[in-house]
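Readers outside the structure-tokenisation community will struggle with the description of the input data as it stands. I therefore recommend that a typical entry be quoted early in the introduction. An entry of this sort, consisting of the sequence and the corresponding backbone structure tokens, reads as follows:
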Amino acid sequence: MNGTDWKQPIARSRTFLEECWAELRKVHWPTFEETRAATIAVIIGVSALRLAGFAGTIVTLNYPSAVFIQYLLIGGTLLAGGYAISKGLIIEPPAHATRLMNAISEWYLRRIGATAGQTS
């Protein structure tokens, strides 16, 4: 065994960490506005899906065969998502939806700011 064998893993680890840091510097980090718009879009989307699932559950109580529609919708969503991921598609909301989400979030932030100002 050579006396420098123990240095090779340390040197490779250091090189790996340096390359990772270099790649992180290339990343486009989202701005606050982009993060806020994406967060609101996720909240609205998840809320809509939860509401649709709840409505589907209520319908299924009266019409048990309707449960197959729910499973078809879930399967279709998974397939569409898998397709978008496999093709590297970037799916963005329409401009009017983004403007609406921004207006709602600004209104909400103003309300929170006004409420925080009243309590102090």
